[in-house]
Amino acid sequence: MRADQKNRSTRVRLTPAITAFLGLFFSSTSIAGPLDTLKPGEWYETPSSTLRAVDPCRARNCVYSGVEGQDAVMDSWSGGAFDTTRNRLIVWGGGHEAYAGNEVYVFDINTGAWSLATQPSTAISRDTLYYPDGKPTSRHTYNNLVYAPNIDKFLSVSASALYGNGQSGGNATDAFDFNTSTWTQLASVPPSTGYASSIASVTAYDSVTGHVWYHNTLSGDLSEFDPVKNTWIKHRSDYLPYYSTLAVDVVNRKLVALGDSNPVLVWDLTNPGSAPITPTTSGDKTIENSRAPGFVYDPVSKVFVGWSGGSAVYTLNPATWVWTKINPAGSNTVTPTAAEDRGTYGRFQYVPGKNVFVAVNRTTENVYFYKFSSGSVTAPTVSLGAAPATTLSPQSVLTLTWTSTDTISCTASGAWAGAKPANGTEEIAGVTASGIYMLSCSGAGGNVVQSVAVTVESASVAEDDPVAAKASGSGALLIAEILFLLGLGAILRAMRRTPC
């Protein structure tokens, strides 16, 4: 092959459409099958699924390598979240002297593989919230990571243990957009009323309201964030120890925090300003005694499920506060590794589309899945339409109509906003500008977003400015006359050249 031919061949790229098609095609032959046939009580270990496989600097000689390299993304008190829109586990972490890399990792449930959603920053600064390129600094992420499907963004709420040698941090709320691969700053967490710390702070997404619950540690505050309106509400101050995990019971409207042998705290989300209760729990309290354990709500079985390494899981019934140890099924052949000593954090998540749990302990170990119940969940559906049409004249009345199935909550964004019922109609009077009307609905089976683009046409020149219209018409007539004369001239010249 000639050198120029070789160079041309290396420039061939797959289009996004082809890439997406190939991803969907191969997903059916990779991990989808094993997860679909997994029986209750069984674990599945995804082969060749270590995060180390996509380490951007395996030699650990990069400006961002720190003293640990990529390993710190999980073992340095760092966690993750679950992208219910794309069916992916998100992991982000590092910080202190351990690692300065601020790249975002995602594990695709369909393909069974890790990839980098961003590359690490190469301009590094110490003990600052943001690197010179404007991206958030590497940090311990604890349990303060969450995915908000109603704005389709991955959030890091507050910061501590920034890359450097101190415990520097702040109240910043940073959002990553997977569609544009960009970070933006949202409204900051409200200042605390007492001695509080962002170290080991906790978050949880409430699919009923579409809001994010946040509590910083020590004498911190319970605060509520509306991602659509980008506003915070601080409800009350309560002492929360380090190394807790937070989860929402969407049915009974309870917010539960536990971990590291501390008392279980339960807030009533119908009255978040009231003091939390400390219920007397019974049974096997392994998860209560674990440091920052995996702890999430199962919408199918309607219990909390906890995990801290190994093959057993533990359920907490919010009606009785009884813990039950669930040993693996007799047919199980996989035993996950022990939990990271510093905590599991958000690296144990529920996968709505498959009714399984996903877990990972270290960058050098594979990703695991666990099937708890035989029940199934149905993915929500949404249909959104606009009338009288998607192209309107100024000051028109736009009517939006939508229906959804298997949803818990719906939230509008884009050109409109606010919580919406599962099915409804809304008139918007006096529409003057074009826009995209988006509706995000969440359910036990995940979340779905639909949108409709509405274009408002500019008034015609004749309607807006009669003088301009007349001038425009005159100009058009003049052009027509010139073209006629030029054509006539060409005909006459041709006649003179034609022999009689």
Task: Explain this structure.
The chain is mostly beta strands and 500 residues long. The chain is 13% helix and 39% strand. It contains six helices and 32 strands. The chain has helices at 3-10, 16-27, 32-36, 72-75, 461-464, 466-497; strands spanning 43-45, 79-83, 88-92, 105-108, 113-116, 139-140, 145-148, 153-162, 170-177, 182-186, 196-206, 211-226, 231-240, 245-249, 254-259, 262-268, 282-283, 294-298, 303-307, 313-317, 322-326, 348-351, 356-359, 368-370, 381-387, 391-392, 396-405, 409-414, 418-420, 424-431, 435-443, 446-456. The strands form eight sheets. Strands 6, 7, 8, 9 and 10 form a five-stranded antiparallel β-sheet that branches. A five-stranded mixed β-sheet has the order 17-21-20-19-18, with no helix packed on it. Strand 15 and strand 16 (262-268) form a beta hairpin. The chain is globular.
Please describe the structure with a list of short key phrases separated by commas or semicolons.
about 500 residues, mainly beta, five-stranded antiparallel sheet, five-stranded mixed sheet, 6 helices, about 15% helix, disordered N terminus, disordered C terminus
Mean pLDDT level: 86
What's the shape? Answer: globular
Helix/strand-derived category reads mainly beta
Give the N-terminus to C-terminus distance in angstroms: 66 Å
